[in-house]
Each structure stands twice: as C-alpha cells, then as structure tokens.
Amino acid sequence: MKISYGYCAKFKKPIALQFKEEGTNFFAVGCFLPMVGADGKAKDVTEDSLHGAFYLSEGYQRKGCPRCGAKYMFVCRDCGNFVCYNGMSGTAYCPGCDAHVSVPAMTTNRIVANAPQNPLTLPTTQVLVAIDYSGSMRDVVSGTQSKFDVVRQAVIATLLSDPNIKAQIGIVYFHDRNEYVVPMTTDRRKLIRVLEDAHAYPCNNTIGPFRDMMEQSVYLPFLQHTGKKIIILYTDGGFNDLVRMERLSQQLKTKYGVTIITIGSPDADSRYLAKLSSGGNSISAAYDNMEGAFADAISIHHDGQ
Q1: Residues 70 and 131 in one domain
Q2: 38 has which bridge partners?
Q3: What is the DSSP letter of 136?
Q4: Which is deepest, 49, 261, 274, 298, by most CB within 10 Å?
C-alpha cells in the first residue's frame, strides 16, 4: 500500500490517502487522519513518491474524506497535493496553495487535475537537490546531529525558507540506488515534510545521482524543461564509478543545458567534485558552515525568477 498526503479543503487540514498500485495506475482505497503537530504538518506517516494515473475506488467514494465526507478528489498542478472537493466544475480551495483554483467536473473515477492558476508566471527555474543518502551520512558531527541532519537543516533554512527564491524544486536521494522522492513542485511545505521524515540509508555503496537521470522517464520533465535547470549536489565522499559519473555530468551540461553546483564536506574529494560541476562551481564546507555553503550555491546561478 502506498501513502500520499493531501488536504481537506473545507477544514484546511492534512489527510493521508492510501493507494493500491496496479502497474502505472494508483487507486485510492482509503483515507485516514494523520497525526498533526503544532506547526500544522502531518507527523506520523512516511510519504511515498507516486507517478502515474490516479483513481478513486468504489470503497473510497462510499466513505469519502474522513474530515468533511467529500466523495471526490483533484490533484493540484500548482503544488502537487491531492485535495478533496464536491466533484463539480468551477472553483475549489487548495490549502497547499492557499488559493482558489479552477477545477473540472469529475465524471469518472479518475482523479482530475486543476488548470494551473498562473501558467505564464510559474517559476522558470527548476532546482534539483541531490543529497547523499548513504550510511556514512549517519555519522554524528555536531552534538547529536548526524551529517544528514546538518545538510537537511541547511537546505530547509536556505533554499526552502527564502521567499526571494522563485523556483520549482525537486529532491533526489542517492545511495546504492536513486530515489526521486519529490518531483518538481512549488510546495515548500511538502519538501520540508519529506526532508524532516528522512533518515540516511544503511549503505556504503554510492552510485551517484546522474546515472538514473539518463535512464528513467521520471526525470524527463526536468531534462526537457526549457527554462533554467540547476542541480545542487551534496556528498560527504565519492562515487563508485568516477569515470562514468564524469561522463554523465558532461552529458547533462552539454546535451541538456543543466548547471551543476557541487557541495562537499571536508573529507570529500574537492578536485573531483570540481570536475563534475559547471565552470568549477564546487564548494567545500565544514559542517558548522553548511547553511553558508548552500546559500553560496543558490547565489551562484539564482536568476530572481
């Protein structure tokens, strides 16, 4: 069973949807109330990354939203959240955007999507944050904080908290495989929630984030994006296949026009990270200055859009 958070539009609070996976289709079979903290965020469930077509099962439609009883659902193209509504065309409130959006009628059991509110003014820059998720990121470096804790807080404090950064953002974790945990979105709350729920993976085999970008279709919207594309990559070490990583990074830069900015801890190979980056844009930072490193990375190619 897969889990994805959504919102009850009437009460503006989180709900958690249970999806049954059938190939590339996902059927909502249930919905429950997650534990919500004082900050209004859901706390007790790890969210899955889902890609495909979404439907409501008959069982879901009999019960509806556990907060308001609404029998229908739309997915917001502006923030990526599922939101309950009455199934009629017109406008509906999206708590993720804190705005009313235009939605079509739901005439079948397939979950509909709204028309983006401002399609001409969506951010033209996409930033993919690739974070080392291997076992070494569990090492404690400051008090009780692990390397991953420090990097997570740096991303939240800079990239996800600065209102001047108008970009779509996605998150990739890499270890012995890659996980595109949050595809491009403007929903900062969702990005923060995923980061806060994560813990480093117990693995010392790191393949690096670039391989799957060339081989998995889920990355195509990012690679084919016509605006500015930036990858900010953090690692505390190196990668298994250095030659291949360098070749793939060159492909990303020349074929797809991606700008790559690398950040490494003091024990990472700074010369190699400089090779992977665009124009030598590689930053080495101690853990007590990780926020400064991410702030520097953002400022290198931030276009203000």
Answers
A1: no
A2: none
A3: G
A4: 261
| Domain of residue 23, residue span | 2-113
pLDDT-derived band at 303 (thresholds 50, 70, 90) equals very low
* pTM exceeding 0.70: no
**DSSP β-ladder status, 258-264 and 282-284:** parallel
Q: Has residue 68 got a pLDDT over 70?
A: yes
- Same domain flag for 87 and 132: no
Q: Residue 115 forms beta bridges with which residues?
A: 102
Average pLDDT over every residue of 32-45: 64
Q: How many domains does the chain have?
A: 2
Amino acid, single-letter form, for residue 29:
V
Which H or E run contains 176? Answer: none
CATH, residue 217: 3.40.50.410
Q: Which of 76, 93, 113 is the last residue of a domain?
A: 113
Strand (E) or helix (H) holding 157: helix 147-157
Which tens digits make up the pLDDT trace of 172-216?
998 888 888 888 888 888 899 889 888 777 777 677 778 777 777
Say yes or no: 156 and 280 in one domain. Answer: yes
